[in-house]
Design brief:
Layout (H helix, E strand, L loop, with lengths): L2 H10 L9 E5 L5 E8 L3 E7 L2 E8 L4 E9 L3 E2 L3 H8 L11 E12 L2 E11 L2 E17 L4 E13 L12 E15 L1
Antiparallel strand pairs: 1-4, 1-11, 2-3, 2-11, 3-6, 4-5, 5-7, 7-8, 8-9, 9-10, 10-11
Length: about 190
């Protein structure tokens, strides 16, 4: 292997550092927001959303950036078609009336060059509320399969669905919903 190619590959896989803000587009094939909710006290049911888009702007040097994520409500996936139809309906997500769930943030927190949190506004079921995302994994580097500079993260939060007007069967079906967002975004 030529030394310049080897140097490029090694340099591209190092941790993220940049001197200016960089724009990224969410990779919908590697971004799947998921949720977990207590079901009648018996178990924790899980699901995910299969269609997500968005933009991320990162400038770790100045500890700034922004996030805009749009999740298609109707893309909910639980592994059970009957349940998915029910969750898309008026008693829960009302996906026909509220086709998107969004998260918008311009307050990112960094520890050196590592993104560690994002505070923003979650809009769900037509209601917007502040939400804090904790980021427990963040990495940027060259994706050696796609050959594109990529950033990835894992973000988590907990919300009360009743705060967003989705209160059917509360408290028997849990009010608290744990949300995890595993995201990858490629540099524009």
């Amino acid at each position: 292997m030529k030394p310049t190619i080897l140097a490029f590959i090694i340099g591209s896989t190092l941790s993220f550092s940049a001197s200016a803000a960089s724009s990224y587009t969410v990779d919908p094939k590697h971004t799947f927001p998921s949720f977990e909710i207590n079901h009648l006290g018996f178990s924790f049911q899980r699901g995910r959303f299969n269609q997500t888009s968005g933009k991320v702007l990162l400038d770790p040097e100045s500890a700034t950036g922004s996030i805009h994520i749009a999740i298609e409500s109707a893309s909910i996936s639980t592994g059970l078609a009957e349940l998915e139809k029910h969750l898309r309906g008026k008693e829960f997500l009302d996906a026909a009336r509220y086709p998107q769930i969004t998260f918008v943030s311009d307050k990112l927190s960094f520890n050196k060059d590592q993104l560690v949190a994002a505070d923003g506004i979650l809009t769900l079921h037509g209601i917007s509320k502040p939400v804090h995302l904790t980021i427990d994994h963040f990495y940027c580097g060259m994706n050696l399969i796609a050959m594109k500079y990529t950033c990835g993260a894992n973000a988590t939060t907990m919300i009360k669905r009743s705060d967003f007007g989705v209160d059917k069967y509360v408290p028997k079906v849990g009010d608290e919903v744990t949300i995890a967002i595993q995201i990858e975004a490629t540099k524009d």
